[in-house]
Amino acid sequence: FGPDLHLLPLGDTPDGGTPEVGTIVEVVAGPDHHPVTVFVESSASLAGRTADGVLGDGIADVLPDVEEGCVRLYHASDLNSLTSIVTGGIDPRFINDGCNFGPAFYLTPHVDCAAYYVQQAAMRGSRQGVMALDVEQAGLDALPHQSASRNGGDLWQTVIDAYNPQLDTTTADLPAGEQDTHDDALVLIGPQTNTTPGRRYLGETDDEPWPQYAFRTRRRAYRHVD
């Protein structure tokens, strides 16, 4: 995403040329040979799909309908990382442990959140892309998770403080009963923090925060979406 077109290497044409905007490339990737659809778009072409020029709406418009029984989750990252994930799977060695919920593979069900991250990184000169995954809802719901942090209240604050290296808070400071739930959880769910003064959450407003799903690496929970 940027002023000109950037492509995933796996989206290149067989003859080595560059597909035109609007091209849909079907590839087989990963050790399990799973099918992947690459939508060749630029930030300008996606924004042009909507009357208001909203990038997130353009991403949603280009994608097919969500698979039945699934929830669509998004992951924004640089093109090299996305290509590595598609071709070789999620590698926990390269996962950033400095995020809200510690070492995890982070996804969001809110497309505007993914668009926000690629725009922020693109302004710093990084080549970015968005990955969309349709994850089985029943399987996702069955994973042990700490849902009490969903509302962004005191428990959520204690959890993110525990993973903030600048603070002395630990998960031992969680309320009685919640520490075991936290330790056993494969997925941590809750709003994303906002560094803007006067705003607690990242999202449209504090009343409409963007949620994040952190699939924890220490229990290989990310295998559910890999």
Concise summary:
By secondary structure, this protein is an alpha+beta fold. It has helices at residues 43-47, 55-62, 79-88, 111-123, 137-142, 154-162, 178-184; strands spanning 24-29, 34-39, 70-78, 104-107, 128-136, 145-146, 187-191, 203-205, 208-209, 211-216.
Explained architecture:
With 226 residues, the protein is α+β, with helices and mostly antiparallel strands. It is built from seven helices and ten strands. It has helices spanning 43-47, 55-62, 79-88, 111-123, 137-142, 154-162, 178-184; strands at 24-29, 34-39, 70-78, 104-107, 128-136, 145-146, 187-191, 203-205, 208-209, 211-216. The strands form four sheets. The protein has a four-stranded mixed sheet. Helix 2 crosses helix 4 (111-123). The longest helix is centred in the middle third of the chain and has 13 residues, at 111-123. The protein is globular. The chain starts with 23 loop residues before the first strand and ends in a 10-residue tail after the last strand. Mean pLDDT is 82; it is low at 1-8.
